[in-house]
Amino acid sequence: MEELHFQTLQINYEALQQENNLLKRRVQELQEINESQADKVKDLHTKLEEKILEEQKEAQDLESMVQQVEANLQMMTKRASKAENHVTKLKQEEVALLQIQLNTYKAENEALRRGETAGMNAVKQNANLALENLHKAVSGAQVSIKQLVSGAESLNIVAQLLNSIDKIAEVHEDVP
């Protein structure tokens, strides 16, 4: 009976030892899986931090670009406004010169009708001087108009650039 009891204990011991070995292997497998998953989590965390930094840099670069474009737009707007004011001033001067020339021609016509030739030379000189000034004003107005057109084209390019930046921002927001 003692031998039977010993055999039973022996069988229980061996069964417990097998179960213990099996549990040790299982624990070791779980530790390896845990370590592998911890490494993956660490790697994913590192990648996430890198991605966040990259997105922050892109956002800063985009913000910087938008500020640059806004500054350029303000500068172009000021230039266009200044050119418009200059064109308006030149047009007013041109109108005044044309009025002077018209008055000179009227006086010249009147003098011709009366036959006054002595004063005609002075009238002609005045007319020529007025004509010369008129040509200068017209040339200046043409330059200003060209500058205004150039400024308008620049503003159009800036508007297109802002539109493109908006589209880039929309695409950037849509990307998860």
UniProtKB/TrEMBL annotation:
Name the source's superkingdom.
Eukaryota
Q: Coiled-coil segments, which residues?
A: 6-115
Q: Which of UniProt's keywords are assigned here?
A: Coiled coil
InterPro entries reported in the protein's UniProt record: ENTR1
Homology family = Belongs to the ENTR1 family.
Protein name in the entry: Endosome-associated-trafficking regulator 1
Source organism per UniProt: Staurois parvus
